């Protein structure tokens, strides 16, 4: 590939490296428009590398999401920036990223930085450059915005420690749900090394919290915790495998979030990859299953019970409804007597609706239209609830209940 020697402008670099960063999902921007940073100008919240994440206090914040470089010495098959990929390459210096972050921050476009990178020269060299970027921002400019650094498991633990001292959140990608997938698709990566790095970071976060309880001025270490990302659909792993793996990661490493990224076929794809991306709905169903475990009290094994014969969650209905249809003997739940745990399992009742129901029923016995006022869609809830003036009688047992409740299929994806 012939390279022209015209030096790249900052804007060229920004275009290439913001666009390359969009493959990393560890930044909760699901639900915004499809990202293509070429279409949005710098001020556009959808364009040039701006993503949305959630601060520990639940606020949604805009981050500049960018790679230090998309040069990489690794050759992970599913990655658009892999060594053998024929893409335009660019590289920022730590100073350039710090300057960009500050200028966007001053114009109120962003509230922080999400920084990841391909591996240049070595894992340590790359990690040093990322830490240096965060150091310039924090120490030379007293930058108080949010910083999320994607750390590199192969790097020296001391460098990952430095990253945690400057960043609000750190994350390490586990990449793929199974060891076999990792070995086949990311030959340069080692599961043991990745898990070792996650464990060390977890220990450091706990130590730093303990130290801060004893010494007010002890340094903070990744106060917003650590997260990870898994690519869905590049290997043979089923949703059941993925849910099991995510739950083990939450338990073992105290993660704040596991992000899922639907595999996206890339230019010049490697022959070992599937030719087609998985339906985006699959990524969405995995996020829903994640919520069931985090906020609705479902055990991982219960979410796995909601899967179909092939081990995948159904695409036409959400996992909570799928579970309820399989375990109809648990329903209907009496809205006036059911426990909080039972009510959280009723399809169509979210955590807020359950809170409202528990508060309202202290004062009066609820009818179906009271429930309708407290929830978004009563039609989904009705087969699974008993109220003062409502019994679903045969509705709960109808063989065609799934068809009745599945949302009408609209053609969302043309390809």
Quick overview of this protein structure:
The protein is α/β, with parallel strands linked by helices. The protein contains 15 helices and nine strands.
Write the layout of secondary structure elements.
Blueprint: H1 10-21, E1 50-54, E2 60-67, H2 94-106, E3 112-116, H3 123-141, E4 146-150, H4 157-166, E5 169-171, H5 179-185, H6 191-214, E6 226-232, H7 239-253, E7 257-262, H8 280-295, H9 300-305, H10 319-326, E8 333-334, H11 340-344, H12 351-360, H13 368-374, H14 378-381, E9 385-386, H15 401-405
Parallel strand pairs: 2-3, 3-4, 4-5, 5-6, 6-7, 8-9
Antiparallel strand pairs: 1-2
Taking the sheet with the most strands, its summary is: 7 strands, mixed
Name the overall outline.
Answer: globular
What is the beta-strand fraction? Answer: 5-15%
The CATH topology of the largest domain is given as TIM Barrel
How many domain units?
A: 2
Average pLDDT confidence is 84
Instruction: Determine Rg (CA atoms, Å).
Output: 24 Å
How many helix segments?
15
Quaternary class = single chain
Any idea of the CATH class of the largest domain?
Answer: Alpha Beta
- Physical arrangement of strands within the biggest beta sheet: 1-2-3-4-5-6-7
